[in-house]
Amino acid sequence: MVRAFVLLALDPPTPLGHASPGHAHLDHASCRLLYARFFGDPPGTPPVPEAPPRHRLRRKEQLLAVGRQVASQCRLLQSSSGRPSALQLPQLPDEPLSLQDAPGGLFQLPPGDPFPERVTVVWLSVSALAFALICDPQENLSLAEITLRRLAPRLLASLRLLGPGADVLLRPDATDNLLDRLLPHGQMLFLNERFLQAMDREMGIKTSR
3-class DSSP state for residue 123? Predict the structure, then answer.
């Protein structure tokens, strides 16, 4: 089962010379949480109910911790491949992108870092954005990657640029609708192209083929 989905805006890395003393490495993998959705309780959630504000704050902190690790993975992949960081959003939605070669990966988080039990994170990076699924460790990771590569171009169509940089406005209703179709209750589906094309036409989504 997929426990959560997150959409992140990756901030540009801070040069070492501009970092504050004693914090040279803290800003190198920063990110902003644009959208997040939990599917049921995270692994190891205690049965004792928490006060709603405290519960929401704890979940946000958990997802930000995952987001920072995703941002670190993106930076590491960019560095190892020799590709310069390209942290500008594409012109959306008029220029649909093919994400077949978009960089991505997966990693595991041990118990307590930040969830009480072990989880696997599958992520995909597109320009200044990163998409991630937080999954149970026994989940089908190949299907998780396929699901993420199907979600990402359709979610890009739900973004609106606010300026020339990486500021975006998300349409949460469209995002919720997509997740309800492609990840109902956190369950990944084996979907054929005919279903996806019919869904795209129904929702008015234009994606690159």
Answer: strand
Q: Find all residues with CB under 8 Å of 96, minimum gap 6, and list them.
A: 153, 156, 157, 206, 207, 208
DSSP secondary structure string, 24-47?
TTTTTT-EEEEEEEE-SPPTT--S
- Structure confidence by residue, pLDDT tens digits, 169-206: 567 787 888 899 889 999 998 888 888 888 888 877 77
How far, in Å, CA of 13 to CA of 128, rounded? 11
Q: Is the pTM of this model over 0.85?
A: no
Contact 147, 106 (CB under 8 A): no
Separation between Cα atoms, residue 45 and residue 182, nearest integer Å: 25
Q: Strand, coil or helix: what is 102?
A: coil
The per-residue pLDDT for range 64-120, each reduced to its tens digit, is 889 889 988 888 887 776 655 544 554 444 444 556 677 889 999 998 877 888 999
Q: Are 29 and 71 in contact (CB under 8 A)?
A: yes
For 58, what's the count of Cα atoms within 13 Å in the CB-facing half-sphere? 16
